[in-house]
Amino acid sequence: MSTMTQTQTRTHPVVGTLKPRLSWNRVPVSLISLGIGAILWEIIGRVADVPFFPPLTEVLATLWEMIVSGMIFGNLLVSLGNLAVGFGISLVAGIVVGTAIGRYRRVNAALGIYVYALLTAPSLVFAPIFFSIFGAGQAAIIAVIFMYSAFIMIINTASAVENVNPSLSEMGRSYGASEWQLVTRVILPAALPMMFAGIRLGMGRAVTGMINGEMFIAVTGLGRIVTQAGKSFDGAAVLAILLVIIVVALAAVALVQLVDNRMTSWVPSNSKESR
C-alpha cells in the first residue's frame, strides 16, 4: 500500500509547484542576431569615436528627427516609385527573355553571350550612357535599375526552364498541347520555385540600382539625401538613410517571398526548406 502511494506521488507531481521558464529556443535567431549587432555597433561607435561611424543611438536620434521633419516620407515615395517601375520592367524582361533562352537553343546561342557579359559588367558604368541618352530624370534611373536586376533574373529563369523534367513536356504533348500552352501551363509553373530564387536576387539588386541611380544621375529620392549628407560630412544622416534603405530592401524581398509562397503553395514544405 505504501509502495503504491509513493508511485502515485512520483507519477503525479504537484502542478502548482511548476514555474514557467524562459526558453531561448523560442526566441527567433534573427532577433538575437540583430540585438547583438546593435550592441556591437553602439560599443564600437563609442570606442572608435570617429565622425563617420557614430553610435547607433545617435543614428536613430538623427533618423527620428528626419522622419518628424518630413524629409524621409516624400523622398521614400519617389524612390519606391522608381523601384516599382524599374523592377517591374526587369521582371517582365527576365521572365520572357529567360524563358526563351531556356526553351530554345537558337535564342540561347544568339542572346546568351550578351546576357552573361552584361551580368558580369559593372552596372554603374552604364550610368553616364543613360544620362546622355535619357537626361537627368526618372528614365535614366529606371534604366540603371534594369541593368542591375534584369540579367540575374534572365539567367535564373533560363536555368529553371532548362531543368524542368522533360517527362512533363512529353505528357503535355501527348495531350495535344500547343507550344504556347506547353510553356504557359506546364513549363513555367514547374519552373516557378527556382525562378523565384532569381526574382529575390533581382529585387535586392534593384534596390542597389535605385540608390546608385538616384545618387549619380538624377539626385532625387533617398539617394539625394545620402548625397547631401555625404557632402556635409554628416555620418549620422548617411547611416540613418542606410537603415531606411535596408528596411526597404528587406520589405521588398519579404513581399517577393510572400508571392512565392502563394504561387508555389503546391510545392511540399520540406522541398521549400531545402531550397
Structure description:
Mean pLDDT is 86; it is low at 1-16. It contains 12 helices and no strands. It has a domain at 77-265: Orthogonal Bundle (MetI-like fold). It has 275 residues and is an all-alpha fold. The longest helix is centred in the C-terminal third of the chain and has 40 residues, at 179-218.
Question: What is the CATH-assigned architecture of the domain at 77-265?
Answer: Orthogonal Bundle
What is the string of SSEs from the N terminus onward? HHHHHHHHHHHH
Could you give a short account of the major beta sheet?
none
SS summary, helix count = 12
Oligomer category: single chain
* Helix fraction bin: over 70%
The portion of residues forming beta strands comes to under 5%
Q: What gross morphology would you assign? A: globular
Topology, number of strands: 0
The average pLDDT is 86
Secondary-structure-derived class: mainly alpha
Low-confidence stretches: 1-16
Q: How big is the Rg?
A: 26 Å
User: At the first level of CATH, what is the class of the domain at 77-265?
Assistant: Mainly Alpha
CATH homologous superfamily designation of the domain at 77-265 = MetI-like
How far from one another are the termini?
Answer: 59 Å
Instruction: Examine the coordinates and then state which fold CATH places here, giving the name of the CATH topology of the domain at 77-265.
Output: MetI-like fold
